[in-house]
Amino acid sequence: MSDFVTVNLDTIPDLLKSEKPVLLTIGAPWCIDCRRAQPFLMALAKQYSDRMVFAGANVDECPGIRETYDVKHIPTMIIFKGGKPQENRLVEVKTPGELKAFIEEGLKD
């Protein structure tokens, strides 16, 4: 599996069967904050790929994803453990440090 996979509403359930935590990023190519976060998201995906699965969904190509995961703003990052979304979300990430801290928190038991 690559460091980052693209998913949709049909493929997310299989992805969430992973034994590793899953970081799902919901965004869009036209979203400035999404584009700004992309380089450090990819770098962190490479760094943490042995401990976490990184996936992304495009809101324009996944009708209903906003409603399914209660997404109000993009990018929204949700960590799933055991197939269940964790309470904390990262919305409109601004810095690499902010994302790294979110990932580290998501890796704790």
From TrEMBL:
CDD domains per UniProt: TRX_family
Record's GO cellular component terms: cytoplasm
Signal peptide limits: none
Matching Pfam families: Thioredoxin
SUPFAM superfamilies reported in the protein's UniProt record: Thioredoxin-like
Domain spans labelled Thioredoxin: 1-108
Organism: Sutterella seckii
Domain of life from the UniProt record: Bacteria
Gene Ontology molecular function, alphabetical: protein-disulfide reductase activity
Protein known as: Thioredoxin family protein
